């Protein structure tokens, strides 16, 4: 290869882009922020692990309940998962239905107002939800619990005896469902609005009704987004503290009965209620339950991110 050919090849290569000082500064700040988040996350994990070692290595009889730290945290994990699953089962179909109505059915002015009101639910403090659940929702659920005990007691979830106050696991789950509804609805609304226009128009051109178009073109496209939003809402429900602590009447134990006064607590609510009066090994035990909740929440959010990223390479028509 001659020197002339080498020079021509160099001339044919596009010039490297010159990054301005502002670009370099922004890239450095962004990278530093990402690294800082990872360091904070690692620091929180290290703190929880180090402070939990005393509870992990302590004799079983020294832990509250006298059966060891794992027996102590087991009912709390069960209660946390039950309350979060109830919230997810109620909020997901409702959030998807609201998102579809706002995106494809409601007039523009109504859609804008309704979307704003749904998003505004996320700004309400959890303590307000808790007092609303205690003062309004729980008493309103008492007649239903009595009816469920009389007519549905063959189902373990409604075995009874029905709570006279309404402060049950089902009530707590319904409060959590309202709290995570804005998350699921907002993400679903965003995904549904990005469904390829040519796919929607093609379905309508072939004679599909609006619902058939949604079923064939919108829902398949937004399925993973709905799943990701639901799991992000699940992460919020898993860590909710004050609302559950105010609404739920706790008696301990593991039970699938959702309408009685015998309810397991959740990890976050138990920490909030027990921490002020704890000391020494009791604090270490509570921190260990916090570590378990940290691992559960991290796993849920990582799974949600994985589901969302699977759709990142979707190449639909615009």
From TrEMBL:
The Gene Ontology terms for molecular function here are: phosphate transmembrane transporter activity
* Gene3D superfamilies tied to this protein: MetI-like
Q: State the family named in the UniProt similarity comment for this chain.
A: Belongs to the binding-protein-dependent transport system permease family. CysTW subfamily.
The scientific name of the source species is Klenkia taihuensis
Composition-biased stretches (Basic and acidic residues): 1-13
- GO CC, alphabetical: plasma membrane
Q: What does this protein do?
A: Part of the binding-protein-dependent transport system for phosphate; probably responsible for the translocation of the substrate across the membrane.
Q: Which domain of life is it from?
A: Bacteria
CDD domains found in the cross-reference section: TM_PBP2 (cd06261)
Q: Carries keyword Lyase?
A: no
Q: What is this protein called?
A: Phosphate transport system permease protein
Renumbered to this chain, region (Disordered) spans 1-24
- Where is it chiefly localized? membrane
User: Where are the coiled-coil regions?
Assistant: none
Looking up InterPro entries in the UniProt record yields: MetI-like, MetI-like_sf, Phosphate_PstC, Phosphate_Transport_Permease
Please give the PROSITE patterns that the UniProt record associates with this protein. Answer: ABC_TM1
Which GO BP terms sit in this record?
phosphate ion transport
Keywords, ordered alphabetically: Cell membrane, Membrane, Phosphate transport, Transmembrane, Transmembrane helix, Transport
Q: Where in the cell is it found?
A: Cell membrane
**What's the protein's topology in the membrane?**
Multi-pass membrane protein
What PANTHER family does UniProt report for this protein, alphabetically? PHOSPHATE TRANSPORT SYSTEM PERMEASE PROTEIN PST (PTHR30425), PHOSPHATE TRANSPORT SYSTEM PERMEASE PROTEIN PSTC (PTHR30425:SF1)
